[in-house]
Amino acid sequence: MTEPLLRTEGLTKHFRIGNALSRRTLHAVDDVSLTIGEREIVALAGESGSGKSTIARLLARVYRPTSGEVFFEGKKLSSIRSRPDRLRYSGLAPMVFQDPFASINPVFRVSHGIMRGLKLHRKDLTSKEMYQEACRVFDIVGLTPAADVLERYPHELSGGQRQRVGFAQALAMRPKLILADEPVSMLDVSIRIGLLNLMAALRDSENVSILFITHDLASARYIADRLIVMYAGQIAETGPIEEVLAAPRHPYTQLLLSAAPDPRAPLSVNAETDRGEPPKVIDPVPGCRFRWRCPVAVEACHSLTPQLKPIADGHEAACHVAQSGAEVKAF
Amino acid sequence: MQPASPSGRQQKSAPPLVRTQEDAPRQRTGTVLDVRDLSVEYVTEGGSVLAVDQVNFSLDSGEFVAVVGESGCGKSTMLFAVAQLLAPPARVTSGSVMFRGRNLVGLTDKSLIAIRWKDLSVVMQSAMNALNPVKSIGAQFKDAMRAHGVRSNAEIGDRSAEVLKMVGIDPVHLKSYPHQLSGGMRQRSMIAMALLFTPELVIMDEPTSALDVVAQRSLMVQIKELQEQFGFAVIFVTHDMSLVSHFSDRLMVMYAGQVAEVGATRQLFDSPRHPYTEGLMEAFPSIRGPKVPLTGIGGSPPNLAKRVGGCWFAPRCAKVLDRCATERPPLYQVEGTQVRCFRHDGNVA
To answer: What pLDDT was estimated at residue A9?
Structure first.
């Protein structure tokens, strides 16, 4: 098997919480193994608190994993020591943030952020070449005329334009993988589709892979090749996105799917509406973490943590019921 | 409201000050809100910007009206004008907001205070910012009830617990501070607070936009259930049309401060008449059915400071006509909906 662009093995991140009297551990990400191939858009979906952003930060080396390892082009991230190596990696796998209003410095012109990135990461370029590069990526993301937009201040741009600036900054590093943490969720619905189209175009024209973190399965389906559904720090289900959405096996995926608003479909009020919340996983005991919200939970779910196992070709789910071959119809 | 009896003595026999469904004394039929020719301007140094332009609509008791549009289309400004929450430089330049026969425009703060929470309440977009971070949920409920003359702590406690239960939160959370609650719970407790006095009208400004899909969906179902139970009318502002498709009775699409199209929700979804409504419908991908490339709406919302001669939407419109550049379209009546587009002028096929 050829080595994928990025691969994680048992990636785990725990946070210590509480004080000296009550020392507890929050399991933000537990034993996550995933791959991202070249020129692949992988959607990472789940509710707030499911650990999706923690994964993005682990992959961007903002956090150090508690255990487990990330391999980028076959090399261990934990072996990166020197500053040039660190810079090189953050140029290869930059992040795009959720909030375009908070992620760009408001007191500088837009050109400031992108030129700074270029000065740090592309030292071989002359300043004239850097400017040309900035113009080039602004053109790619649709901020035209580039020379004009570069001279503006963030407050002069709309939310959608600012998020395009975020992608331009990432692109200027010549990345292989863009870690996009909910890049469209703060934007107006009418603007979102433009950003989604841009992400799909970047994959095709710039040969980048994208980790697309979202809670909206509809926009995930629109551009992604593969879907990873997270619940409470673990992968619940993963597979080719069309197949997972056509035949979701994990009850949680079914819940997410039923919650997606779709005016073209009739309202499924017959399904008992879920009022639960994703748990904070503090000092967990064995057992499926979804069992409290799951209408089809069986005895095994309370004592055994389900492992991710293949259910169909390339389609895996961590659910005892689905793995037993039974038809799961939870939501 | 004053207590019905001299305070202190007859607390046991005094009638409850907080209305519940059974003893609601008011009529729950007829027109609750009637907005006529409402215009709001932001007066700035560079000139004034007409953010809401001659908006007309009325709301029947128990009706759910959704207002949709992009950022900057004036939907929140319109909402604030209805609730009389505008702060300078924004001001209402014309029109009236008749709430149960009283014009809210021009009412003194004192009379507005008596109405707020009691007859009309507002749920803000970001519950994290709307709730006071250094006060418990219960203390904030207490504030609102005290402001309306409820003195008895027992009564305040009972009602607070009751409304919190109504939105599916355990009353122990009356002691919780906002940061201890999840985003969904914070937004629910805002709604609980809005329902303290079972008002006739609840105004909601994108209450779900900070939530993820599952919480969003369950909140919508909850709002609808409460509305059916207590019969209050709702104005619901959102930029996501798909969200309200199954919940609202009527849909009002705003563009550049004007009503672009208004009509029954189902009708607008099945046969959108304004090109802007069509564009909004094409803007969100479907979770089922064939995958089709979408384009959304090109361009960006207009700068309202730069008045144009023709239709505001013309520069982004795929179906633009010659006259759109020079004439302003009025609202046309077409089979129960109102559409601001020349394509529905009787003269044009």
So the answer is: 94
Within a domain: A94: no
Give the mutation candidate from B179, B209, B213 for the A interface (greatest A CB count, under 10 A): B213
CB contact under 8 A, B291 and A222: yes
CB–CB contact B218 A259 (8 Å)? yes
Position B21 scores a pLDDT of: 46
Decide if A168 contacts A114 (C-beta within 8 A). Answer: yes
In a domain, A314, yes or no: yes
Residue B208 burial (CB < 10 Å; 0-12/13-18/19+)? buried
Q: Provide block-wise average pLDDT over 10 residues at a time, chain B (349 residues).
A: 42 46 55 91 84 90 90 86 87 89 87 87 81 90 88 90 86 87 84 89 86 82 87 90 87 92 90 90 81 80 79 87 88 89 73
Instruction: Give yes or no for A273 touching B (CB within 8 A).
Output: yes
Q: What residues of chain B lie within 8 A of the CB of A274, using their CB?
A: 214, 218
Count of alpha carbons within 13 angstroms of residue A114, beta-carbon side = 33
Q: Are residues B92 and B133 in the same domain?
A: no
pLDDT at B7: 42
CB within 8 Å: B296 and A190: yes
Residue A160 belongs to domain spanning: 101-174
Position B327 in a domain: no
3-state SS, residue B20: coil
Helix axes A110-121, A159-171, angle to 10 degrees: 10
Q: What is the pLDDT of residue B113?
A: 87
The interface residues of chain B toward chain A in range 149-168, judged by CB-CB distance below 8 A, are 168
What is the ipTM metric for this complex?
A: 0.79
CB contact under 8 A, B246 and A245: no
Residue A275 pLDDT: 63
Q: Which residue of A143, A156, A184, A188 to mutate against B (max B Cβ within 10 Å)?
A: A188
pTM of the shown model: 0.84
**Is B234:B251 a contact under the CB 8 Å cutoff?**
no
Q: Is A207 on the interface with B (CB under 8 A)?
A: no
Say yes or no: B243 contacts chain A, CB-CB below 8 A: yes
Residue B102 inside a domain? The answer is yes
pLDDT at A181 over 50: yes
In a domain, B226, yes or no: yes
Distance from CA of A259 to the nearest CA of B (A): 5
Closest CA to B40 of B5, B71, B85, B3: B85
Which structure tokens are listed for B324?
């759109």
Is A192 near chain B, with CB under 8 Å? yes
